[in-house]
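Open question from group meeting: does this chain pack into something compact, or does most of it stay loose? Before anyone orders reagents, we agreed to write out a predicted structure and look at it together. Recording both the input and the output here so the notebook holds the full record.
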Amino acid sequence: ELWSAYRHVITSGIFGVIAAQIMIMTRSIWISVIFHALTDWPIVFEKVVKGDDGGLGNYAPSTLFENLVNPLSEFIIYGPVILFLARVNRGGWPKWMQKIALKWKLVVPVTESHMLSP
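Structure tokens returned:
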């Protein structure tokens, strides 16, 4: 179906940008592979609706506007994620996140003695 293909291309493209950004940030393809596996994990538990004839059920048709706009909602959801990952990759974590990580002792503060020792 044309609209299913359209939606798949849009959502796959957005996912590809996120996975590529994760790979660039971590310099490891395995983190992107694990991210992809976790993203697809709910498919394992998806319930398939059977029709009266034993085949897959038919979905209600959507309007042209719905078909064009629905996949673009992915940009609203994942756009900030892509921008945040690009920000972290370009200039490090935002200051407020560093403060929280130090406060909760998730990271060790960098001192001059850490920087001088090999």
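Observations to bring back to the group:
The chain is about 65% helix and 0% strand.
The mean pLDDT is 76.
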